[in-house]
User: Which sequence fits this backbone?
């Protein structure tokens, strides 16, 4: 096996790759903007979303719900976290919360990821519909992100707002900003008054209005809220245990101006709120003089690193080297300081309307200029763009173990932003989006290219903290646009060799791994194969897919339990309330699609149909909501599970990928051969294809899966090519094709493509018949636990029981082997059936009904054609029953053939001592007496 290129020489290799056929040349920079060139290694090409219009059906219905969300959600809420991080005005927008907020499960560590998803959704919506509203929203977001990057590139500047007396300074929550005062600001005063107008905007405890100190031992602070939620002043030379303090009596109101003042001299300290003395301590022994010269003199920041920064506004901060009287404090309530009886502070005086930059002049005459700063300084590279500081990226480089409370997948979030920008560029040709994306690539390369191989391997092997999603795929796409060798080199820096090498050797090491952390890696590896020609990438991706499908796959196409994989072939043993993370299905679909571009193995598209028609459709609730996408995170497969379409606290990864899935349902209905010699029809879905190169349109008319087939009508010019129609692996009998009413010769084979080659003309009509049958799929580790399918549709029982329901299906099985006659159709409800008083419905219906995706197969009696033989259905030690062996030989050409099979199986079981001879006779006689559906 060829080893990967050295990362230290990859820059040179990337430059030379353009001369290697089928390698770097495959993704050379595009000549025209916003057109992503397909790799030369792809045997097939996808059609753009704009080339495939959805017709009326379940996909269009589900998409409409998501388009309403795309139109209705205020994008300024998404941009809030970016603008806050850059210290810009948030325009009054409220952050989305959940994973996009500073509180809750993510602790603010995933801010920005959802914006990337939303950009991708908008880009896909615009490409699919052409509605200007989506392009306008993209332009708004790209423009705002451009402003954010510009602001981050410079030192912070004052965010001016309306103050108590004029202008005021706002420190936005999430900006990481504070005001740094000179070390001489207190001047060793033994008597002091500090006065400030504040308008807090958040209710977190221990926000510091000011904190003067060296560390957590020597300091003096005023907090807007202590542990009890009221203002507190304290001074100490012995840490928290030695604090001498003053506590207020009531919480400061949010979003209102309040005046705070502290006087301290001798043994007496007093805290004033809005001119009223609310606390006095006559046992104070410490003053600023006692503290000495202090290095950390801050407005809005605490000497305790775990305390929150102050979120809110400042108007006038004054410090006097004496104790103001009650009357003077009162005067400050109705006048700005310069017009009050005490005048401006004698030690320091700042009125924040006096600057538009990041420095604040001192009105005391002492030259104590203050400076607006960020706790983290600033970006290491001008291309940095994020909704939080660069700190997580820095910390990751030294982490030896995962701790997602401190570092939660920063490169995963970077991927979502990068992908969203690239999709925005592709959809709208907005070069600002490409510039932002390219800058992100440059910034990441500047960080990662200087790290050792060992450091990179350790980082990417960390659970959650080292997760990077589909960033490699996005970076290779970026390289296709920019042609920068550094960008291709960057993509290689994410190689996780232990995983790649194991999968390339077809060694299954997935047990215990986080599923969605790893699935998108392999789509990236395929794109690296396209760019470099390294076959281990392709081999690893193919083998990996085979380790998941079917060995860790549930019937609906999903995978994972509690986000993780368990042992190979463990399905029944992993069923829980937290199965099938929706992101996993999204990424497995993307991987399957990309593998199919390379090798046209029908199993890839069989899986695509399974997961798309079941988990992906079923993850979207059938309810309109402009504020929420209404998409599941987990889909529990335990009995009686009710889907949660508003998971966790919102704005999760799965809601993000759910938004994307619902706006690209048509992306894999049709593919074309790279040389134009064939058109692949992968999915039977109402749609109209415009194949511009051929001048051909193909309109697919169908109610599939309510209809068992489809009709394709050709329009436009005449063109010669092969029409490749997918024969699903479950379509084991009756698949037929006619052209203009004439049957096409040949024998369609389940799990393949059936080709019709001719010169197609306008008006040609192709009819495809795809007979469904009811069948079961058994859990790999427990054959008695089964799930039900009718054609491509997973049918789930709707029942509130939390125990597995027992069902038998052979009672009225057809000669064809179809189990459907045992069920009774529900009038007026397509694909709904009743069995033993329980309704079965398509999994894809996004309801909140309690469902049973799996049931316990129970065939206690030998029954044929609804006639009960009175004989118990015997079973072998492996669980196989007599009826299982009989029906395993279906389809039967006639009743006689079925009876002959029954007689053969009975004779074998009698001879083996598994069935009494008299009972065997009853079984045969019953089979012979019964009537059967053909």
Assistant:
């Amino acid at each position: 096996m060829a080893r990967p290129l050295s990362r230290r020489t990859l820059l040179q290799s990337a430059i030379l790759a353009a001369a290697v056929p089928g390698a770097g040349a495959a993704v050379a920079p595009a000549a025209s903007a916003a057109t992503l060139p397909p790799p030369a290694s792809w045997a097939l090409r996808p059609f753009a979303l704009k080339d495939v219009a959805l017709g009326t059906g379940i996909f269009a219905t589900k998409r409409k719900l998501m388009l309403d969300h795309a139109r209705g959600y205020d994008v300024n809420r998404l941009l809030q976290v970016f603008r806050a991080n850059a210290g810009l005005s948030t325009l009054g927008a409220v952050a989305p919360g959940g994973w996009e907020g500073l509180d809750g499960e993510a602790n603010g560590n995933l801010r920005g990821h959802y914006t990337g998803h939303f950009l991708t959704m908008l880009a896909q919506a615009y490409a699919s519909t052409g509605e200007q509203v989506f392009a306008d929203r993209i332009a708004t977001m790209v423009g705002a992100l451009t402003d954010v990057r510009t602001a981050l590139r410079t030192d912070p500047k004052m965010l001016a707002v309306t103050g108590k007396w004029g202008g005021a300074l706002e420190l936005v929550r999430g900006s990481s900003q504070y005001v740094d005062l000179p070390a001489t600001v207190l001047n060793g005063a033994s008597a002091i008054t500090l006065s400030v107008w504040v308008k807090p905007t958040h209710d977190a405890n221990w926000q510091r209005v000011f904190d003067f100190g060296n560390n957590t031992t020597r300091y003096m602070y005023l907090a807007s809220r202590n542990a009890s939620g009221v203002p507190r002043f304290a001074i100490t030379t012995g840490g928290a245990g030695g604090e001498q303090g003053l506590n207020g009596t009531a919480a400061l109101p949010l979003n209102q101006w309040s005046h705070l003042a502290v006087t301290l001299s001798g043994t007496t300290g007093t805290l004033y709120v809005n001119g009223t003395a609310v606390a006095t301590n006559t046992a104070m022994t410490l003053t600023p003089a006692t503290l000495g010269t202090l290095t950390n003199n801050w407005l809005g920041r605490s000497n305790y690193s775990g305390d929150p920064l102050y979120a809110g506004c400042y108007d006038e901060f004054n410090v006097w080297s004496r104790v103001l009287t009650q009357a003077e404090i009162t005067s400050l309530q109705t006048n700005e300081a310069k017009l009050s009886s005490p005048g401006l502070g004698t030690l320091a005086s700042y009125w924040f309307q006096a600057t538009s930059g990041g420095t604040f002049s001192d009105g005391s005459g002492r030259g104590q200029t203050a400076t607006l700063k960020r706790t983290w300084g600033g970006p290491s590279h001008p291309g940095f763009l994020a909704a939080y500081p660069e700190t997580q990226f820095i910390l990751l480089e030294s982490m030896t173990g995962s701790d997602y409370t401190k570092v939660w997948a920063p490169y995963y979030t970077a991927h979502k932003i990068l992908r969203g920008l690239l999709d925005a560029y592709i959809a709208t040709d907005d070069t600002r989006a490409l510039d932002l994306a390219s800058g992100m690539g440059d910034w990441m390369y500047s960080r990662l290219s200087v790290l050792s191989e060992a450091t990179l391997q350790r980082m990417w092997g960390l659970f959650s903290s080292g997760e990077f999603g589909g960033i490699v795929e996005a970076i290779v796409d970026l390289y296709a646009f920019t042609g920068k060798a550094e960008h291709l080199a960057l993509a290689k820096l994410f190689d996780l060799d232990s995983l790649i090498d194991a999968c390339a050797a077809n060694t299954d090491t997935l047990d215990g791994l986080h599923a969605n952390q790893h699935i998108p890696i392999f789509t990236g590896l395929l794109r690296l194969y396209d760019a470099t020609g390294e076959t281990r990438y392709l081999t690893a991706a193919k083998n990996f897919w085979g380790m998941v499908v079917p060995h860790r796959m549930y019937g609906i196409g999903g995978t994972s339990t509690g986000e993780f994989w368990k042992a190979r072939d463990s399905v029944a043993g992993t069923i829980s309330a937290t199965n099938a993370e929706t992101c996993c299905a999204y990424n497995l679909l993307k991987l399957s699609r990309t593998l199919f571009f390379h090798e046209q193995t029908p199993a890839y598209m069989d899986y695509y149909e399974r997961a798309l028609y079941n988990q992906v459709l079923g993850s979207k609730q059938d309810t309109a909501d402009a504020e929420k996408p209404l998409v599941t995170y987990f889909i529990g497969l335990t009995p009686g599970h009710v889907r949660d379409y508003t998971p966790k606290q919102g704005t999760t990864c799965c809601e993000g990928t759910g938004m994307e899935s619902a706006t690209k349902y048509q992306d894999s209905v049709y593919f074309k051969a790279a040389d134009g010699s064939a058109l692949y029809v992968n999915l039977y879905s109402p749609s109209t294809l415009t194949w511009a190169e051929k001048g051909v349109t193909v309109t697919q008319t169908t109610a599939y899966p309510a209809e068992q087939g489809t009709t394709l009508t050709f329009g436009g010019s005449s063109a010669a090519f092969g029409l490749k129609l997918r024969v699903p692996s479950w379509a084991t009998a009756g698949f037929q094709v006619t052209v203009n009413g004439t049957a096409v010769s040949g024998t369609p084979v389940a799990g393949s493509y059936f080709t019709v080659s001719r010169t197609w003309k306008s008006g040609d009509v192709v009819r495809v018949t795809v007979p469904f049958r009811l069948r079961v799929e058994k859990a790999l580790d427990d054959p008695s636990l089964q799930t039900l399918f009718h054609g491509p549709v997973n049918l789930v029982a709707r029942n509130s029981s939390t125990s597995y329901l027992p069902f038998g299906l052979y009672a009225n099985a057809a000669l064809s082997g179809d189990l459907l006659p045992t069920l009774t159709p529900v009038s007026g409800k397509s694909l709904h059936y009743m069995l033993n008083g329980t309704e079965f419905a398509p999994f894809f219906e996004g309801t909140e009904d309690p469902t049973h995706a799996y049931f316990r197969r129970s065939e206690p009696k030998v029954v044929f054609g609804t006639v009960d033989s009175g004989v118990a259905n015997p079973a072998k030690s492996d669980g196989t029953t007599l009826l299982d062996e009989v029906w395993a030989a279906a389809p039967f050409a006639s009743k006689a053939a079925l009876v002959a099979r029954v007689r053969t199986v009975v004779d074998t079981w009698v001879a083996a001592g598994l069935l009494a001879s008299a009972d065997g006779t009853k079984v045969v006689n019953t089979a012979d007496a019964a009537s059967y559906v053909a």
Remarks:
- The longest strand covers residues 191-200.
